[in-house]
């Protein structure tokens, strides 16, 4: 098998000890060279609520979400946002290489096997983005791993998040609205909301808030990068 990112042949030769571990059965689409450029968040002294790396306490933003929206942030992520992740999302989202959706399959799948939720949903692309790109990047990233439910939609915003500065992002008003499918979900179910990148947290906090307003209490969020 070749690395989806760089085309190098992936060495999947397993050590004897690995053959007996479940992780050996999960397909891998990233080579060791690319993997060595990632900065995993696990095992570091992160914000306990949002996985902001190496700060060792509840971060300012999480305290702000609690004060302003009464949201106790419950977010996990896999990799620190760095140059490799930046280049990956540029190829995947800006240049629309949909095959790259599976690059982190093994990591996300492994996380999914270690956590359990009643309902898994995702941050949907806005209609104009979907039309321009031809696919929904968050949906494609997770569709083979989780049983995804589309429970809410996004209105077209004034300008894309990526073109906004930090203040503009934080001040963006709620752009999500619930779909009829949300009404079918029992309010005591645990909800997981997926996104690709967590930057200021605003996007996920808006969706978290929407579920809170709808009467849900057990809400977690997850992103590939933070
Ligand atoms: Zn590679
Ligand atoms: Zn935090």
Automatic annotation (TrEMBL):
CDD domains referenced in this protein's UniProt entry, alphabetically: PRTases_typeI
Signal sequence, start to end: none
Top-rank taxon: Bacteria
Coiled-coil regions, chain positions: none
Classification via Gene3D superfamilies: 3.40.50.2020
InterPro entries in UniProt: ComF/GntX_DNA_util-trans (IPR051910), PRTase-like (IPR029057), PRTase_dom (IPR000836)
Record-stated family: Belongs to the ComF/GntX family.
Protein name: Competence protein ComF
Species: Companilactobacillus farciminis
Upper taxonomic lineage: Bacteria, Bacillati, Bacillota, Bacilli, Lactobacillales
């Amino acid at each position: 098998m070749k690395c989806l990112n760089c085309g190098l042949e992936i060495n999947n030769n397993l050590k004897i000890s690995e053959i007996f571990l479940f992780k050996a059965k999960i397909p891998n689409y990233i080579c060791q060279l690319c993997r060595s450029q990632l900065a995993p968040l696990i095992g570091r002294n992160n914000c306990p609520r949002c996985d902001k790396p190496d700060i060792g306490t509840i971060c300012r933003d999480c305290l702000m979400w609690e004060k302003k929206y009464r949201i106790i942030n419950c977010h996990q992520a896999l990799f620190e946002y760095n140059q490799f992740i930046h280049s990956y999302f540029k190829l995947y989202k800006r240049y629309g290489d949909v095959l790259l959706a599976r690059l982190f399959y093994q990591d996300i799948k492994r996380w999914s096997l270690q956590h359990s939720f009643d309902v898994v949903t995702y941050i949907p692309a806005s209609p104009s983005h979907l039309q321009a790109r031809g696919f929904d990047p968050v949906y494609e990233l997770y569709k083979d791993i989780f049983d995804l439910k589309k429970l809410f939609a996004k209105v077209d915003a004034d300008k894309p998040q990526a073109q906004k500065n930090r203040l503009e992002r934080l001040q963006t008003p709620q752009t999500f609205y619930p779909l009829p499918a949300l009404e079918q979900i029992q309010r005591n179910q645990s909800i997981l909301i997926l996104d690709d990148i967590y930057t200021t947290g605003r996007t996920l906090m808006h969706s978290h808030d929407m579920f809170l307003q709808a009467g849900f209490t057990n809400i977690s969020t997850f992103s590939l990068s933070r």
